[in-house]
Amino acid sequence: MPTTQKAYLDTETGERLPCLFNPASLTVALSNVWRGDETPGKSAPDLYFAGSASATFDTELVFDTTDTGKPVTEYTTKLVHVMRIDPNLPGHDPSRNRGRPPWIRFHWGDLHSFKSVVERLSINFTYFGSDGTPLRARVSISLRQYEDDPTWAPQNPTSGTPHPHRVHVLQAGDTLDRIAARYYGDAAIWRVIAEANGIEDPFRLPKGAALKIPQQPPTRASAPPRLRFDPPPPPRSERAMQPAPEVVST
Fold it and tell me: Could you read off the pLDDT of 13-64 as tens digits, one per residue?
């Protein structure tokens, strides 16, 4: 017969916290983030993928020391300590108000959680000795993923889509500079949108076409080079801001 394996938690500091009884159930939740811009005349927005949220891991553990008569708090207190700031962890700096609790992992046979922080801990003492010593406790623990883990689906906000984008559907009268002003507050960087969509002729922007709008346009200093459709600058006496051409109905 296979040997029964006990679940346990290990911490960033190398401490091992045994689970006296294996859990009856585990819940792992993964989520993606989708966003959309409201568009007049449409009942639902077009969504774009904006990354993934941290995964969560929830379970309930039972600690019972009625066989020894020792306080069950010998185990539950260790869980409480995992939620406290550890001054020995990397990056701790009291002068800059920087500190954090350690991460932990849940293990049970071949099942392992990702590196997690304890987001919520609830301890319910359910049995006591005649002198008031707590001998049994039911612990609900919620863990949140601390960092990306290749053994799980990508969960850090930038995984999967390094440069998520919005989508703008061209309407009659739209120009690239007007679109840039709407999304970035700066009409002068309309070429960023042109480059992101491979537009070589801004004089022909068909109504109804969908344009990708990069989430984070480059600064003026790192803006893309002039595209080949850029007209040469006018003479000094005639220089003026030249708007991008309008959308033409096709």
Answer: 999 999 988 998 999 998 888 888 777 777 777 788 888 888 899 999 999 9
Report which of 187, 217, 193, 214 is spatially closest to residue 205, judged by C-alpha positions.
Answer: 193
Contact 164, 49 (CB under 8 A): yes
Cα three-residue angle 213-218-222, rounded to 5 degrees: 145
Residue 178 region, left (φ>0) first, then alpha (ψ -120 to 50), else beta? Answer: alpha
Residues linked to residue 59 through DSSP beta bridges, in sequence order:
26, 141
Token pair belonging to 93:
């700096």
- Note the pLDDT tens digit of each residue in 150-204: 655 433 333 333 444 577 778 778 888 888 888 888 888 888 888 888 887 777 7
128 three-class SS: strand
Contact (CB, 8 A) for 219 and 191: no
* CA–CA gap between residue 113 and residue 152 (Å, rounded): 9
Closest C-alpha to 153, from 49, 55, 57, 56: 55
